[in-house]
Amino acid sequence: MDRDITIIGAGSTGLSAGLFLESLGYKPRIFEKRDRVKITKAIGINPVTLQLFEKYGLTKRFINNGWRLDCMNFWYNDDLIYKNQFSKVRHPYPFMVIQPQFETEQILEDYLSEKGIKIERNVELLKISNDRTSMNLEFKNINNDTNFSLQTDGIVIGADGNKSKVRQEIGVEMKGWEHPTEYTLYDIELETPISHKEGHYRFYRDGAMLMLHIRDGVWRVGGNLKDVLNYLPKDTKIGKTSWETNFTISEKVAQNYSVGNVHIIGDAAHIHSPLGGKGMNMCIEDSYIFSELFHQNREKEFSTIRRKRVQTTVGVLGQLTEVVGGQHFIGRVMRGSMKPFSFLFPVFMPYMRNFLLGLK
């Protein structure tokens, strides 16, 4: 295929876009301003994503590299209230694969390398300008501090994250809101009596927390509790912290995903609550949908088709986050005591199960 494609950003979004486009016969150029970094970030690959990568042989690589999460447990204090078994879902992959995002990205990059596509790293986009027939992209080579230009009559895909330079260059704003509650997130070594083969949502009068084993005794622990590590299960031993961050959660969607021949996908187009592990998976869905539309010469429809679906999902995530964060009255009531409401769990947990797995 002779259509020029330039992808800005080589995270999971840009790499998956490169993979899907390569499979359709294109040879995109992928630029990334960073060198490789080993930051865990997203850790869950859902069934939809696993199915998308199946025909490329990558699903087996993901499953063999990570571990299968088959169940999420819901606790109130130290009492187990409900086990949400993913095996009840009718799907070829009724589970999530847990592995650090940088390992997911390495598998994607290795695949592209096998197909002859190399990531051009330490190259930063500075400016996008247009004339009547083409675009001029100005870059900086960070290694030798020199600038260069690329003239293209093709398309540019901005997959460069929530602080997207591409989005800035085309003048598209993000619209939405920010939750007031501050969250703390750790990747930390733990010895704990609860199962490392299952995930755990733990609710308390003061807030909520997530516990999910990544590998080799390192757990993802996060929540809106003050001094969240003080709420770990009884007899848990704390080891070394490999990553820690404090943040607030925003629910925002770009006003438009396409301006002329420039398109934004992934976190460049939407940011939202990490609740439910949607982030990386929605970004990869963006990449797949855009690639298919582009191959049909319908890329101008991407914003119309995809944005409405994303807005709906972001809205649901926002409501769930308000419940967990205690801003919603249901969350405040359940913080008092979850046990009286336990009879409702079998009613709404099938929906939650499908939502968590990306099937709703």
Automatic annotation (TrEMBL):
Domain of life: Bacteria
Keywords recorded for this protein, A-Z: FAD, Flavoprotein
Protein name per its UniProtKB record: FAD-binding domain-containing protein
Organism of this sequence: Spirosoma montaniterrae
GO MF, any single term: FAD binding
Domain FAD-binding: 4-202, 239-288
Cofactor names: FAD
SUPFAM superfamilies per record: FAD/NAD(P)-binding domain
InterPro entries: FAD-bd, FAD/NAD-bd_sf, RIFMO-like
